[in-house]
## 1
Amino acid sequence: MNLILLGPPGAGKGTQAELIIERFNIPHISTGDIFRAAIKEGTPLGVKAKEYLDSGQLVPDEIVVGIVQERLKQNDCKSGFLLDGFPRTIPQADVLGEFLKGLKQNITAVINIEVDFEVLMARITGRRLCRNCGAVYHIQNKREKTEGVCDHCGGEIYQRDDDLPETVKKRLQVYQNQTEPLISYYSEKQILKSFDGQEPIAVLFQKICDALEG
Ligand code: AP5
């Protein structure tokens, strides 16, 4: 199964990704996680990406597409993958389509998670993550059992630098201008499946599974 997760910042893509990859046994390819790991390691990619992430802008298409293509060529993607946060622009989607055509593959479904913009700000500013395994928490609706310690791996819980209100506003604008057009793009290809992202996490996950398995 070759899947794409689409939705604004804070829609719950990362949260659903954790569940989907376990259920369908496919690798999780999150471009945001790739950039954050590169920033943490201080690689040349990380140095370049940091200014874009910190200001809430998209990393230029020519940088992102090369990274995703390299990742999709790896063996673990042969029997499927879940792309989270890619594509984010029409040119990225066009390149992905052509690249998969070359591999005689296609996208099985695009899972579009919809959430009202007023809800997103509270979700993102309350989000906390594990520095080690990336597990997602929230100060109100998904707390870790022991404060500051990840339930899964014991890693340290932290807040992302780009989750501060001013940067979140910018990210939401960028989503509306550059990423939202992908909804019509994939709808026209008849592979878009849209879901109400304001349902509880488990209910939403069940609906996604029903749609993919049905
Ligand atoms: P990225 O890391 O992809 O961030 P994003 O798309 O902005 O998405 P988020 O990670 O903020 O949110 P999410 O939808 O995963 O929500 P989550 O599950 O955490 O990208 C970061 C940056 O990298 C970009 O700004 C850009 O600079 C760059 N970048 C990445 N990809 C790129 C690309 N292709 N091209 C160019 N640049 C790129 O949930 C949020 C919170 O809500 C959590 O606390 C969670 O517990 C809670 N929650 C989740 N679901 C529910 C629910 N159903 N009910 C209640 N609470 C919920």
## 2
Amino acid sequence: MIIVMKADTRPDSPEVARVTALAQSFPGVTTQVHHIQGATRSVTEVYLLGPTGVIPSTPFEEFEFVEKVVRVTEKFRAIGRHGGHLEAVGFEYNGVRISQDTLHVFPGLCAVDTPENLDDTFRALARHGVVTARAGVYKPRTSPYDFQGLGAACLPWVFERAGKHGIKIIAMEVTRESHLEEIQNALTASGFPTGVMLQIGTRNAQNFELLKAVGAQTDLPVLFKRGMGITLEESLNACEYVASGGNRRIVFCLRGMKTNLGDPHRNFVDFGHVPVVKRLTRLPVCVDPSHSVGRRTAGPDGILDVFHVTAQGVVAGANLVLVDVHPRPEEALCDGPQALFLHELPHFLDDVRIARRAYEERLARAARA
Ligand code: PEP
Ligand code: MN
């Protein structure tokens, strides 16, 4: 059960205290208070946990400072929209606003290899006005003999260079709990020249202990990638682990499904689920065209498959695009075959803008319908 307070009710206000006191007077019921940045305003919500089925709504609805009482279904308690009764949640991190209405492109290295390549990449981003990037330093590889990422040792120069080029957020995968501390320590030691969005990779989508760990901290937002071989519902339930830990600054990322039915692409592109995830959850939705397509093939129209599927995600309302680029893809230590060349970046960004304009036109048309 969620008690949505009227606009401008602070989480530490006496009104919220009255709601929590009433809630806690029911046996076995505990409360969590969340202050949420919604699409149109910020709102305080009180979550009632425990045996809430027997609790009547009326005493809460009678408070003049309560906007509404929403009975949640079992599914996706924290991230769900519960039949459209709850609005989308966005957040602002390091000066960048992310929500179901915004669009940001996160280009960068799948795996950080050399300072020069990182510098070249960030410089290209800065030249094109991009302040959000990806940079992997902990790489979960299919083979133990493949490059595993440079790890914590490179964090100081990764953060320093990000700061130098004005990068505000780096999406960075973590594969174990200790990586959180390594990132926090390196950010602190370098004076926070940039921000980090913790990425949960598809291989860890059901690593519940890791999900609890990223959910238990609220300093850094989380980019949760769907599991490659599980249903959307299972992925959303896994994502719920992050939110139920207390962290509500989450982005849900579609990155394709593992099946030969998607051949010749690396994964079967699932960007048709962008509006589905936006409908089922309150979260901004990311698409990862690089790991979906996995190669540099182009259509007879001369447009790369990576561009085409990105456009499909954006035209359907995606809020983030995570894309691999590399100054010298042939030398990349991970996923070079799917990386865009830096000279392709302006074309890619233009293509994203074209698709976004199409989405905005579609929105306006739908509003008139
Ligand atoms: C990545 O983004 O570098 C990555 C490993 O992606 P995924 O977890 O989707 O395979
Ligand atoms: Mn990769």
## 3
Amino acid sequence: MTSKIFDSLKLRAHKNRFENASVRIKKLKTLQSWIKNHESDIEAALYADFKKPAFEAQVTEILFTLSEVKFFIQNLSCWMKDKRVNTPLSLFGHKSYVHYENKGVVLLVSPWNYPFMLTVAPLIAAVAAGNTVVIKPSELTPHVSQLLEKMIKDCFDADDVTLEQGDKEKTTELLGYHFDHVFFTGSTSVGKIVAKSCAERLIPYTLELGGKSPAIIDANANIEEAVRKIQWGKFANRGQACVAPDTLFVHKKIKSAFLAAYKKYDESLKSETPSDIISARHSERLKNLTNNQVDLKSSNTALIDLDDVTQFPKIQEEEIFGPIATVSEFESIEDIRPFYEKNKNPLALYVFSKNTDFIDQVIRNFPSGGVGINTLVVHLANHNLPFGGVGNSGQGRYHGHFGFLEFSHQRAVLKQWGFNFLLEILFPPYTTRKKQAIDWMKKFLT
Ligand code: NAD
């Protein structure tokens, strides 16, 4: 990207600050229509890149994105309005409000696993908040990246949203510009590189990262239901999802029944065609994690029983990100703590149980970005919930209003409308009467 392009994005971001809601809604509607008119192109690009089944492309990439854009179109006018807040008695004579202002030029760096949805969902929020945007999609999904480039050219002015193709060198080049916000979705290791680069120039950033998300299955859980949901979490997108269950803790009393039910159910679904593992590097990584003992060509998913197998040390440390999960048994939640201490703050935590005390104990003991109780992965589909990590799994949040706020500067405004005799007390000379007045105020205000 040239400095000239960046300067034009800066200038446009300034102009966008004066836009009203209808202008931004028009942009979102253009994007919405484009997606609706190109559904089959999106499906085809996802298939060409890693054989994502059309059904999954519809549900996880198109449906999610379309419902997000609709939610923004319906709510943006309300979100953009200045928000009146109370004014304390000490500031009598003033009114207070929060004014939502764009941040400026935003960089969006996206990953390959949901290459359409994870680019367009933050784009919707960034545009709705009035920012201009530079997108750097993943180099591992070239067909989708090409289609995204066309979408951006068709829907936006070049000085409003632009897309830069490339790999990590391109991200490094882009990070050389003084963006006003960087929104990164990807691995924790690259997240650290992005955070370091932003910190040097105090650029605010959002990190949407991954981690080893545990699923804890209590003795009284409905086994069939837990099996179906967990198998889906490992099957969909070949388990290459940031919120896929990574490590299962199954209560000792039901572990063998759970493993038997999982195997039976998983094998019954053999005919379904799953997505590919994205690249040879990732296949190799998964082979190494499992000492080559999992057939990655099969459409099945695999559970590795860590209570039987101890020779896979790396699988307990690295995010698996594939159609494999490990299983360990537990009797009390203290048995889970050593794992948690090594893999703190995952993006998601799942608990399957009928016991509310147990659920409460799990949630309080093991912080995570989000939680699914007797449910899995779909917590991210509620626009009214924030989506984001904590600590190792990231910082910041988006989806719905949370996305609008993430990409906005929430500016505090205090406006005087009348005489404020209390404020007069602050100004010199500091007389005895004023000191007495302050003492009086302390009685009432503190
Ligand atoms: P990645 O970190 O390898 O790549 C993400 C982006 O960063 C890509 O655009 C890539 O080109 C760029 N990049 C890669 N290496 C870089 C470097 N050294 N310097 C600068 N830029 C670099 O991640 P990925 O393999 O594309 O995605 C998988 C990871 O993303 C997993 O860890 C997963 O958990 C995480 N993820 C998180 C979420 C979320 O919403 N929290 C969603 C999807 C994926």
## 4
Amino acid sequence: MRTLVTILCAMRPEADPIIGALGLEPHEPAWDPHLPMRCWRHPSQPVSLVINGADRRTGVDLIGTTPATLATHAIVQHMRPATILVAGAAGGHSGRTAIGRVHLVDRAFHHDRRIPLPGFEAYGMGPEPMHGTPDLASAFGVGIATISTGNSLDTLPGEMDFFERHGVTLKDMETASIAWTAAHSGTKVVALRSVTDFFDQPTPEHQFLANFDTAVTNLAASVARGLPALLDSCGSHARA
Ligand code: ADE
């Protein structure tokens, strides 16, 4: 069965509650088995889930933009879904969101690509467009927010200024790179992010660890709630 929606998670513990909620089963990936990404699929619906996998050297989950780009390219090439549904944790702005709250993403900036050369500034910072409509937000039971992607858990003072300038509520380590990669094939990208920590407060790493279970439990509930509507929208486009 052709996959219509591929859910993409960076970390295995982000994926586990979704795998449980949807009843997904392990599946042999279509790509070179030496690559780190791992795959599950639904026994009867056109839904699959991919995780970035584990680092060969250290064994940790492959968070960050480089593995996200690799996974997205493999998904687009080998699974050809209509939509990639990004699902994971994010830092949040303490004045604009709450711990454990899930958001649908409308735009994704790159906050650590500072390139003050003629013409390169707009390429560097984005934003990448995302598929985040009010209809989808209500299907998932969440609000809409803007995200920015970089490769660090902490936040530099200049990055805080960037977030204020562009109305950024969420901060993560994959979404903008996934959107950029998928855009080459016209694959739609929908992103749901659940807040583990406040990026404008000290030691986000402690908050991340303390709040992770709550955040990914809420995330899985939102994915399960909105997936039928997302599948309907992909199915109607595929038939059109
Ligand atoms: N994912 C969860 N919390 C994050 C943070 N503070 N920065 C980047 N990615 C995150």
